[in-house]
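Session log. Operator J.P. requested a structure for one protein chain; no other inputs attached. Running the standard single-chain path with token output.
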Amino acid sequence: MTKLIIIGHGRFAEGILSSARLIAGEQEKVEAINFLEEMTAEDVKSKLLESIGCHEQVLVCCDLLGGTPFKVASLVMEEKPDVKMDVLSGLNLAMLLEAIFERELTTTISDLVDKLVTSGRAGIMNWQALKSQETEDFSDGI
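Structure written below.
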């Protein structure tokens, strides 16, 4: 099973993981790393390396393209060619839930990444467009 590591600015990582747990329950091999104001890039790298540990397949999901969490995770990926690893930016809750549910069913990390990018994009919609398509009734939530 692919290990999921969420990294984001402030408490984004623990916040989005908390939301995912509310919907999907507690998950194994999913970890949040907060990039707090008092931390350096080296602190993030140290926590990331500790989280990767001896896992063979790891997906790091970051909040922003080009931010410190993304840059650090990308550098770590380059430094650890023995780990099947990828780094995604622009994490949203739809992507995280897809990752949680699909990581056991998807054999390669590249297939998982493809599904998450598609899911992330599909999860972005405005109400007017939904209303005009006469889709599901979301009044009771998910």
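Operator note: The beta strands are 3-9, 30-35, 57-62, 84-88.
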